[in-house]
Every structure is written in structure tokens, then in C-alpha cells.
Amino acid sequence: MPQFDYKGAGVAYTREGKGKTVLFLHGWGADGNSFKPIAALLGGSYDLIRLDFPGFGQSDPPPGPWALDDYADMVEAFLNAFEIEKPILIGHSFGGRVIIKLAQRIAIEKIILAGSAGIKPKRKSGYYIKVYGYKGFKFLAKVPVLSWLLKEPFQAYTERYSSTDYKNASPLMKQVLSKVVNEDLTDLLSRIEVPTLLIWGDRDESTPIADAHLMASRIPDAGLVVFEGAGHFAFLEQPVRFAAIIKSFIGG
């Protein structure tokens, strides 16, 4: 798999086909292969690029605890290096976050957001109790006198209340996740000036369907397609339908 060098980190990607450039950006914990079935269904009618974000798939880890803007900077640098102008961007979950950032800074032809993250969830009081309990625990666990005593209880607390993504991440990617997951992009949606299609599963528990309706109401030129009975990976649950909708939306 070829790699693009960015600030000393190798960014793996695949590129196939000819025509309009379509860039796929995957979700957290996945890689470019998550879009492989969709790329196969789109055939050779497009110039299809699937990136592995730094820290995922065959790409190197980022050189530090990146924020969301760092990932957007990397994608922009990739497009500039290959002289790609006005691509069509397709993003799932975390990839959608990056696209919302990119829409503020580069020329894009069209956008497709599939179960995109970016809306800050409404939290119940219990969530904040857990968060501040964790922070307090973490602070006390660093006190020399208490560190040995609280080591095992702190590990048990972390294991119980952390998300699956956080548990599975490396120490570096845990820092990245903490930076990006709480960034609310709602105010950026109204600045997206290109046609945007939202594709969502109505049983998505990671990015609920309410997020899709909110995004559709804020993005000036947006449409929403709901996949009944599908979850967070609706594009993999109904790939033929997803690919057909993409072809209809982007043309070519």
C-alpha cells in the first residue's frame, strides 16, 4: 500500500479508477478498508481514494496527540500534494468530523456524511458525575503517597466507565480521542456551502438519528436519507443501496 509522508508519519492510502475524485474518510477505530465494499460497487467510474488516518490501519501513529484540526490539515496537505481540486468527500463518523472542518477551508464539489459525528451529545447528570469522578481519581492517583494505594482502584474505575473506543486505544490515541470527541461542530454546519447528503441508520446508537435531523436543518443545501433498521454502519448493512445513492447524488 503506498504511503504519503506527512510530518514524518506515513499515511497509507489506496487509489483506483478514473473520473471524479471521491475521497473516503473512515470512522474511529476503523480504516480505509471499511469502505472497500462501497468502492467495489462504484467500479472504475470514479477516481476512488481511501485513506487510513494516522493512528489507524496501516498508517503510522500521529507524531503527537493530534486535535481534529491536525487531521484536517493532513487531508488538506494530501489533496494539495496530489493536486486534487474540488473532490467529493465521503465520511463516516469521525471522518465526518474531519469533513465538516475541511468544508470551512477547501473547495469541495459535494459532501456525503454517513452517521457523522460532530454534534455534542446531550448528557445526563450521571455522565458528569463519572467524568469529574474520573478526573478527581486521576489527580489523587498521581499524588506520591496515594499512587501505590490507588493504582488498582483507578484502573478498575477506568475499565468500568470508559468507552469501548477509549479502552481499545493506545495511550497516544487515548489523548487524541479525548481532544476530538468533545469538540462541538454545530456552529460550523451553517457555513457548509456545497450540496450535502446525509445517510443515516434510524437505529444508530453512536450518532443518533436526531443528530442527522439537526445537521440537515443547519446545512443550507442538505438532504437526508434514512436507512430503516440500520445502525451506525448503515453503509455496510445496505451497501448496494448506499452505492446507488452515491452514484445518483454525485453523477459522473
Give a verbal description of the structure.
There is one protein chain. Helix 2 crosses helix 3. It is built from 10 helices and 8 strands. The two termini are 27 Å apart. The chain has 2 domains: 185 residues, Rossmann fold, CATH 3.40.50; 52 residues, no CATH class. It is globular, with a radius of gyration of 19 Å. 42% of the residues lie in helices and 17% in strands. By secondary structure, it is α/β, with parallel strands linked by helices. The mean pLDDT is 88. The longest helix is centred in the middle third of the chain and has 18 residues. The chain has an 8-stranded mixed β-sheet with strand order 1-2-4-3-5-6-7-8, sandwiched between helices.
Order of helices and strands: EEEHEHEHEHHHHEHEHH
Structural class: alpha/beta
Largest sheet: 8 strands, mixed
The total beta strand count reads 8
The tally of helices reads 10
In terms of per-residue confidence, which ranges show pLDDT below 50 for 5 or more consecutive residues? none
Round the mean pLDDT to the nearest integer and report it. 88
**End-to-end C-alpha gap:** 27 Å
- Binned, the helix content reads 40-55%
CATH fold naming of the largest domain: Rossmann fold
Share of β-strand residues = 15-25%
Strand order of the largest sheet: 1-2-4-3-5-6-7-8
What is the CATH superfamily label of the largest domain? Alpha/Beta hydrolase fold, catalytic domain
* Name of the CATH class of the largest domain: Alpha Beta
State the shape: globular
Query: Which architecture of the largest domain does the CATH hierarchy give at level 2?
Result: 3-Layer(aba) Sandwich
Radius of gyration: 19 Å
Number of domains: 2
